[in-house]
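Checklist before submission:
- one chain only
- standard amino acids only
- sequence pasted in full

Submission:
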Amino acid sequence: MRVHPPALADLHGVWRRTLVREADGSTDSTTSTTWLQGLALFTDLRQPPGLEETVRGRGPAELDRPQLLALSAQKAFAGLLRQDGEVFSWVRLIDLHPPAPLADAGTLRFEDGALIEHGVHEDYLEHWEPAERAADALAGAVLEDPADGCAGQLVRMGSWFGYARDRADPLRTVGSPSTPLAERILGCAGRAEAAALLDCEVSLGRIRAGRWEIIRSTLPHRVGAELRPESTRAGDALRILDADPHGRARSREWRLTRVEGPPSLLLG
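Returned file contents:
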């Protein structure tokens, strides 16, 4: 059996999780889990089965409380992967859920073609298999909307991309940091307030014939939509086709606060 630890550059690619053993001993092989790793920026989306049938492709503003709770069962985050010796840390810049009390960190090793992740602060174990390995087209950007301060991120790996957009009011600034998302939704006075808690997008997509099409998203009404990233006239910002909580298309202009790789790879 061949076992060896990776370097960060060995992780560039798209990974699908085949198994997880949680710290409490429970296991899961049905949650659809995809991790897209660029040069340092990453996108991670984890969705339980049957979600699309539950929400029927509608935006948060159109969903009732049970459907919003179904959306909250997803896990999704985006940020920076850092390596310190054998330990890798996933620094979450955008997260569907409130900040966890412990840092997201683990050791990684290759074992007979699979990638094995073992938690550092919690005793979990995850098995990952490559869906697509590193390509020449590697680039990413950390984004900020100058109009409202909203945070975003775009990362590209070959024909894949990950796009993340935070809420207008991040969860870390609203209520108690330790209150779970589902509990916050149940505590909301009205549907509009509850829907705003779910207006956080983490999407994965494919680039085909110049079309940046979303194929999976924390916001199911975004599936099938095009991102259409383009440079602004001044060339110092990125314009992306976003959507409001009702699913209506809207153009959003992002300031580039960090860029990795050639910026031209982030244009449609």
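Reviewer check: The radius of gyration is 18 Å.
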